[in-house]
Amino acid sequence: MNCAIIGSTKIAEVHAEQLIKSGVKEITFISRSIKKRKKIISNIRKKVSKRILFTHSNLKILKKNTYKFVCICSKTEVHDKHLMEVLKLKSIIIVEKPIISLLKFKNKYINFLTKIYKKNKKIVVCYPYLFLAKSFKKFSSPIQKINKINFEFQTGGNATFKKICINLMPHALSFFHIFLNKEFLKKKIIINNSQVKKSLWQTSFKTGEIIINLIFKENYQKKTSLKLTINNLLLIRKTKKNKGKFINFIHNYKTKKNRIIKNPMAEFYKDLTRNTNNQKYFRNNRNITFDIMKKNNFFLN
């Protein structure tokens, strides 16, 4: 089984590792920079013990070779360009969220998405927080009624101002799609206030009887962290390294107890690989993507 990964970003390394764990034996990295292509291959070789055939090239390779998966991990601003390059392929197309830039397309995003999904039925956007939400939901039980939620999410990225919202909102929206209920993305929301700074984007809104505060921060010097407060219960997602492997767990601030959880990115790929021939799986992902983009666009305007 083989794949091509477009992009030489840090997230491209993450996808490569999970694709290898999913059974991929050959990976071609596609990028304009030969130096970056060689660097990412060197980085991954240090992390994986399996024998994997690594090659690298430019976009022209997609017209010569056939791949089981093509994964788009380039900068969000060029996702649309790369989607157009792969639409006619028979590969399964994996796209790192968000699928395209809302700042670039604005309200025209619907037309573009409708166009690409019409031409290719096997596009799937990566939403690992669909799976992370299930772990938080189990650990927060049994809360009878949720009145208020704080979702504080910080990453080591370098996005600024509105780009922070575009980058991190899909995580929050996909999380609440599972944590609250699958009608969340369809529900009307009322925004109370919002604040946009260079390294901070936050908003407070009401959906039904629940008040939700979203706090997004990006700082390349900081590690990724998620703090979720449900009413007065504070849960923190943490990672630690044990014998060279990263362990994911949720820490209950009140009880001081930890619960080890599965890696949400690994869960995404596990779900994908068992549904490669399931058209309903791809339709559901498409519908979630349209709903997330619609809500994200609402928050930006």
Topology of this protein?
Blueprint lengths: L1 E5 L3 H12 L4 E5 L3 H14 L5 E5 L11 E4 L6 H8 L5 E5 L5 H4 L3 H11 L3 E4 L2 H12 L7 E8 L6 H18 L10 E7 L3 E8 L2 E9 L6 E6 L2 E10 L2 E8 L5 E4 L2 H10 L5 H22 L1
Parallel strand pairs: 1-2, 1-4, 2-3, 4-5, 5-6, 7-10
Antiparallel strand pairs: 7-11, 8-9, 9-10, 11-12, 12-13, 13-14
Short description:
This protein has 301 residues and is of the alpha/beta class.
Give structural notes.
The chain is α/β, with parallel strands linked by helices and 301 residues long. Helices cover 37% and strands 29% of the residues. Strands 8-9-10-7-11-12-13-14 form an eight-stranded mixed β-sheet, covered by helices on one side. A six-stranded parallel β-sheet has the order 3-2-1-4-5-6, sandwiched between helices. Strand 4 (69-72), helix 3 (79-86) and strand 5 form a beta-alpha-beta unit. Helix 7 (162-179) packs across helix 9. The longest helix is centred in the C-terminal third of the chain and has 22 residues, at 279-300. The chain is globular.
Q: Which features does this protein show?
A:
8-stranded mixed beta sheet; about 300 residues; single chain; alpha/beta; 14 strands; 9 helices; 6-stranded parallel beta sheet
Please list the strands of the largest sheet in the order they lie side by side. Answer: 8-9-10-7-11-12-13-14
The helix content is: 25-40%
Radius of gyration: 19 Å
- Portion in beta strands: 25-35%
Shape assignment: globular
The SS-based structural class is alpha/beta
Helix count equals 9
Contiguous low-pLDDT stretches (5 residues minimum) are none
Secondary structure tally: strands: 14
Largest sheet: 8 strands, mixed
Average pLDDT rating: 93
Distance, first to last CA: 43 Å
Order of helices and strands: EHEHEEHEHHEHEHEEEEEEEHH
